[in-house]
């Protein structure tokens, strides 16, 4: 009887421990993220698209969503006036650590001059375009580094590849433990094929409390995929077809304008 009693007590204790652990896990439920779509199809009529990101974060948290591309090196030329008359290429600079895409959406402000923000600069501030400007390197180091990087960021913004939008993530209070959020990433038409990531950050008082990263692939389909395959895997055939199209176009233009001259 004693052994049976001890066995029953042991089973109850183990069951109680598992129940408590499960309860703790439920109370400390973390971030959830859903992305639609997770694959971008760049076809003939692709003019940009919208990615919907929804999910939950712990109560009291703000949300930052970033659509990021891979970092590359850019070789750009600086233009300037020579003798105050002619605009010419003066110097060539290599920009290092430049993401080809950086779209940032947030429910709160990331860059600020307040003392509270400065205390949290190692966290929320690092997610901003302002922080990206500080991380980009230039070789050789120019005297007007800040000006050149700001011009690079401005150029990327005009191309639709860089963006920082405050207050564009909707966060709604939930059951006291979780808050729901929704964001829409406007992917530009100039997006190139490749692998990207969507980063979702939960912030509390300017500090990152949780992060989730989801890969997103952009791939060519249809006629653009056919042309890409032809150009890179069948270069000779691609060159012949391009030449034939150019000749046919020239002949057609000659017929059109030649017929017009003949009428006189």
- Write down the CATH topology: Immunoglobulin-like
What is the global morphology?
flat
Low-confidence stretches: 11-28
The total tally of domains equals 1
What's the arrangement of strands in the largest beta sheet? 2-13-12-4-7-9
In the CATH hierarchy, what is the class?
A: Mainly Beta
| Reported CATH architecture | Sandwich
Series of secondary-structure elements, N-terminal to C-terminal:
HEEEEEEEHHEHEEEEEHH
Structural class: alpha+beta
What is the beta-strand fraction? 35-45%
Description:
The protein has 264 residues and is of the alpha+beta class. It has one domain (31-219): Immunoglobulins (Immunoglobulin-like, Sandwich), CATH 2.60.40. Helix content is 35%, strand content 39%. The protein has six helices and 13 strands. It has helices at residues 2-27, 115-119, 129-135, 145-158, 222-233, 235-262, and strands at residues 32-36, 39-42, 49-58, 62-68, 71-82, 86-99, 102-106, 137-139, 162-166, 170-173, 178-187, 194-204, 207-220. A six-stranded mixed β-sheet has the order 2-13-12-4-7-9. A four-stranded antiparallel β-sheet has the order 1-3-11-10, with no helix packed on it. A three-stranded antiparallel β-sheet has the order 5-6-8. Strand 10 (170-173) and strand 11 (178-187) form a beta hairpin. Helix 5 crosses helix 6 (235-262). The relative contact order is 0.18. Mean pLDDT is 80; it is low at 11-28.
């Amino acid at each position: 009887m004693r052994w049976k009693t001890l066995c029953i007590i042991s089973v109850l204790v183990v069951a109680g421990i598992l129940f408590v652990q499960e309860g703790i896990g439920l109370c400390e439920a973390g971030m959830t993220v859903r992305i639609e779509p997770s694959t971008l199809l760049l076809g003939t009529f692709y003019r940009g698209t919208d990615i919907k990101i929804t999910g939950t974060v712990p109560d009291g948290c703000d949300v930052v969503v970033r659509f990021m591309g891979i970092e590359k090196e850019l070789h750009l030329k600086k233009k300037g006036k020579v003798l105050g008359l002619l605009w010419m290429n003066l110097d060539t600079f290599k920009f290092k650590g430049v993401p080809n895409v950086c779209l940032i959406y947030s429910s709160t402000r990331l860059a600020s001059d307040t003392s509270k923000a400065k205390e949290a600069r190692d966290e929320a501030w690092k997610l901003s375009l302002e922080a990206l400007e500080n991380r980009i390197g230039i070789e050789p180091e120019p005297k007007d580094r800040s000006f050149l990087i700001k011009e690079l960021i401005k150029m990327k913004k005009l191309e639709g590849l860089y963006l920082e939008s405050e207050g564009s993530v909707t966060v709604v209070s939930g059951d006291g433990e979780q808050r729901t959020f929704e964001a829409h990433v406007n992917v530009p038409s100039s997006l190139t094929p490749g692998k990207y990531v969507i980063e979702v950050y939960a912030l509390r008082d300017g500090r990152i409390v949780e992060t989730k990263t989801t890969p997103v692939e952009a791939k060519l389909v249809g006629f653009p995929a056919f042309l890409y395959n032809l150009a890179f895997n069948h270069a000779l055939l691609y060159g012949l077809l391009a030449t034939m199209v150019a000749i046919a176009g020239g002949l057609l233009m000659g017929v059109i304008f030649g017929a017009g001259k003949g009428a006189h």
